[in-house]
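Predict the 3D structure for this chain.
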Amino acid sequence: MSWETSDALALAQLQATLTRLGAAPGPAVVRLYTSTIPTGAVTDPGGHQAEIALASPPGAITAGVLKLAMASGATPMVLASGAPRWGLLVAGDGVPLARGTVSDDAHAGDIRVAGGATPAGDDRPQLYAGGLVALTETFLT
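Done. Predicted structure below.
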């Protein structure tokens, strides 16, 4: 048997996530990875391709979806070339909270980014070391 939850509970969970993201001492971040998305417990394997700092507050809930916001004035630099396959949402105190797929802003990834060109037939942009990456949209429900 599985639980069926109400919209009120889903909203409460998103509000709790938003509050948890803002935990001190630093800003919440989204880390991008070029490796295959892992399974099992949500942990940080290290070796991220880029790190995008989030605003304070780190986002807003709109129509039942938590949409994250990149920090104003942030210029996240790509550390390693490649196409990001997945991203990790990390609270301000360094605790990993969730992971999701990455795509460019024209496709349906959980985390959408801009900053590179998307090869024909792919949905992820090719990012290059030393280049910049931006968070364009996220969908956490």
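The chain is about 10% helix and 35% strand.
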